[in-house]
């Protein structure tokens, strides 16, 4: 599959992740009387990955996340030379999704932008958690996300179930992380909303690039030693020799 088509699939998939996940937080989480709350938002993020895994996993591998792409490259599941194209496409998809969400959200009289599902630490953490606490949470949660991805897509793992494991894993990650940082584990997901909020959200964005990528690198290095790596099948495919591929936040 040409790199251009795979990058386009990543843009589309990341658009859906940010629009579905952040959209549930902005539009539905606190809706009067019927709000979906943290549990609903966590499920929404997991479902975006699960659905896109089956939709585009066979095209691009469905990374949807710069940290995932970096972790896969470190684990020798993805060519490092293709990282720039994937990361640019993912960030563009996230920004486009945040833009569409902004147009919809501001269509309601009296809407205030607020945090707009941005990630933050200290006074901008939903639970008021410190910078160090948020840094540790993002590194550990991203590390575990990559372990789930690398393990469920390993050649010796049960075939065809990777999207389910990864989608449920991302749901669990959000159940833990929303009170701490609003859950990133995905630099592209963090970038889209932050650009529309500006100010503090852009100023704190560095953490949500550094911590997820650090966690992904550690996982990519550690997992090979733990389980041994299969030979890569199709560049970018997270599930070699299986019917579907998945990843993402």
Structural summary, described in words:
The longest helix is centred in the first third of the chain and has 26 residues. With 249 residues, this protein is mainly α. The chain has a single domain, classed as Glycerol uptake facilitator protein. Helix 1 packs across helix 7. The chain is built from 9 helices and no strands. The two termini are 24 Å apart. The C terminus is likely disordered. Helix content is 64%, strand content 0%. The radius of gyration is 17 Å and the shape is globular.
Just give the CATH class.
Answer: Mainly Alpha
Global shape = globular
Total number of helical segments? 9
> Would you identify the CATH H-level superfamily?
Glycerol uptake facilitator protein
Q: Can you tell me the CATH topology?
A: Glycerol uptake facilitator protein
Helical content (DSSP H or I, runs of 4+): 55-70%
Beta-strand content estimate: under 5%
Poorly predicted runs of 5 or more residues: 233-249
Number of strands: 0
Gyration radius, rounded: 17 Å
Task: Using the 3D structure, state the CATH architecture.
Answer: Up-down Bundle
Distance between the first and last residues' Cα:
24 Å
Can you lay out the helices and strands and say which pair or pack?
Blueprint: H1 3-28, H2 37-60, H3 66-74, H4 83-105, H5 131-152, H6 162-181, H7 187-197, H8 200-203, H9 207-227
Helix pairs in contact: 1-2, 1-4, 1-7, 2-6, 3-4, 3-9, 4-7, 5-6, 5-9, 7-9
């Amino acid at each position: 599959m040409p790199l251009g088509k795979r990058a386009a699939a990543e843009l589309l998939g990341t658009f859906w992740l940010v629009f579905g996940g952040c959209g549930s937080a902005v539009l539905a989480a606190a809706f009067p009387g019927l709000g979906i709350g943290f549990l609903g938002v966590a499920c929404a993020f997991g479902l975006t990955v699960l659905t896109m895994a089956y939709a585009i996993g066979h095209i691009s591998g469905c990374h949807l996340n710069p940290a995932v792409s970096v972790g896969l490259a470190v684990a020798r599941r993805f060519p490092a030379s293709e990282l720039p194209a994937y990361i640019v496409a993912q960030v563009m998809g996230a920004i486009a999704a945040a833009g569409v969400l902004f147009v919809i959200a501001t269509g309601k009289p009296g809407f205030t932008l607020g945090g707009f599902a941005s990630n933050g630490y200290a006074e901008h953490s939903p639970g008021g958690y410190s910078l160090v606490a948020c840094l540790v949470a993002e590194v550990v949660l991203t590390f575990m996300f990559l372990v789930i991805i690398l393990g469920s897509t390993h050649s010796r793992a049960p075939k065809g179930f990777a999207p389910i494991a990864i989608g449920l894993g991302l749901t669990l990650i959000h159940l833990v992380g929303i009170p701490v940082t609003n859950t990133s584990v995905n630099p592209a997901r963090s970038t889209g909303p932050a650009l529309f909020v500006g100010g503090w959200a852009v100023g704190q964005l560095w953490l949500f690039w550094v911590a997820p990528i650090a966690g992904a690198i550690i996982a990519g290095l550690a997992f090979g030693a733990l389980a041994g790596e299969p030979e890569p099948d199709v560049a970018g495919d997270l599930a070699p020799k299986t019917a579907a591929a998945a990843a993402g936040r």
